[in-house]
Structures are given as structure tokens and as C-alpha cells.
Amino acid sequence: MDAENIFGKSLDIVNEQLRSACNRQEMIAVVERFLIKLILTSKGKCHPVDGISRMMTWEKEFFSLDKFIKTACLSHKQFDRKFKERVGIPPKQFLEIVRFHNAFRMKNLYPHKDWLTIALHSGYHDY
């Protein structure tokens, strides 16, 4: 599939800027400007699930899925369907990934801590 069919003629300008870039940092800046422009001009409507998915990554405590479903004011089935549509994976799997990411980050920040301590602190109940 040709990228011009998706992004339009503005891709020619981006390609020209990438060709004239002197180093990798300039190339990254060109692509970032292009992506930011795409995001700002997108017509997708904001949905409560978008905010909930961000909230799931920020929470320091490990809440059940029901708390997030109540916050979104949706039924369990609607929340699952919308979450998968907007994020790409089911909400339960997303929370598992967030929990694992937090545990892994904690181990990197505190390499002297043992895995059992990190697992318990991250909301896991067994080793």
C-alpha cells in the first residue's frame, strides 16, 4: 500500500525533509513534527475510555477493573468492547501489562531489592 494514499501529498514534503536531514536527530524531529500535525488534525472524538486508560497507567494503587468501569459510567460489556476498540487489547490484559511494567521498572530503580518484595509491592500475591 502506498503511504501517499493514507497520508496524502504532505508526505512528499516529509520525504524531502528527511532526505535533506544531516543526522538522525533532525530526521526524528521531522517525523515528530509530522506525527504531531496528524494528531492535532485528527477528527477522532474523545471517549471516557481514553482517559480511563491513561488513569490506569498513572495509578499507584492496584484497583480492580470495577473501579475504572464505574468511573467510565459504562456497563462491563460496553467498557470491554470500547476499551478493546480504542486501546487494542482487553482492559484486564492492559492492567496486567501495566502491573508487570511497574514491577520491572521498580527492579531497575532498586536493583538491590529481591523479586519477592517487588512482586508483593506491585500487587502480585504469590512469588
Which labels suit this protein?
single chain, 127 residues, mainly alpha
Strand content: under 5%
Indicate the mean pLDDT: 86
- Helical region count? 8
The outline comes out as flat
First and last CA, distance:
47 Å
- Major sheet size, sense and barrel closure: none
Structural class: mainly alpha
Rg of Cα set: 20 Å
Low-confidence stretches: none
Elements, N to C (H/E): HHHHHHHH
Q: Level of helix content?
A: over 70%
Total strand segments: 0
Quick summary:
The protein is an all-alpha fold and 127 residues long. The chain has eight helices and no strands.
Write structural notes for this entry:
The protein is an all-alpha fold. It is 72% helix and 0% strand. It contains 8 helices and no strands. It has helices at 3-7, 10-20, 24-41, 48-58, 65-72, 76-87, 91-109, 115-121. The longest helix is centred in the last third of the chain and has 19 residues, at 91-109.
